[in-house]
Specification:
By secondary structure, this protein is an alpha/beta fold. The protein is about 35% helix and about 25% strand. The protein has 9 helices and 11 strands. The protein has a 6-stranded mixed sheet with strand order 7-8-9-3-10-11, with helices on both faces. It has a 5-stranded antiparallel sheet with strand order 2-1-4-5-6. A hairpin with a 2-residue loop joins strand 1 and strand 2. The longest helix is centred in the last third of the chain and has 16 residues. The chain starts with 11 loop residues before the first strand and ends with a helix. The model has no long low-confidence stretch (mean pLDDT about 90).
Amino acid sequence: MKTADNSATPMVRIRGLHKAFGEHVVLKSIDFDVQPQQVVVVIGPSGSGKSTFLRCCNGLEQPQGGSVEICGRMLVKDGRMLPDQELDALREEVGMVFQGFNLFPHLSVLHNVSLGPRKLRGLSRVEADTEAQALLAKVGLAHKAHAMPASLSGGQKQRVAIARALAMKPKVMLFDEPTSALDPELVGEVLQVMKMLASEGMTMMVVTHEMDFAREVGDVVVVMDGGGIIEAGAPETIFTNPSQERTRSFLQAVLTRT
């Protein structure tokens, strides 16, 4: 586990984050920092606001109040988003992996990974393909470079999605329940890639129901309920001695589920 350097500028700084859909308040005045190279794992019951929280961190959802600062740049201030062109530039520094894989079905695995760098980073086809090959090797899929997405397993598709996000050379990676759409036997291969990224010092925010991953890889575990952070701390503290009864009841239900 990495110890936070509190003198460093946070990679993600969130203050007073508020989000509602109509009259339904989803996020209630959230304050939180993510330090460089930290792995922050966000857990909590369904409907607690976890995914919306993550989506506000790269501008996929616009909050009504508060601020979000990423890599030293203000993404949202007083509930107002950056202009589109600046927002797109900042998003290039924030990779995101979703529940669904969202691969282009008509493109090969290699071209799914190389398309972003060609279009957004200005790389040539040869440069982008060379980088994509290296990333596919990194996630254990070099042999699938010329396959089409339809021929892949769910775990393989998610590993391609991770490689595609990494191809933009992000400074922060966001994972929104990346294993929840996978068959149980495929979960491990995706988590292994995420563990490798964590060991290499990638700053990560991960929304997940995988408690073993949270305990083993997380530097900070954040527990959300009812649109707010009810507690946050080191995994050993959250899992063995949580301060909130709601955390205890949630963990008891999750950890005893068969």
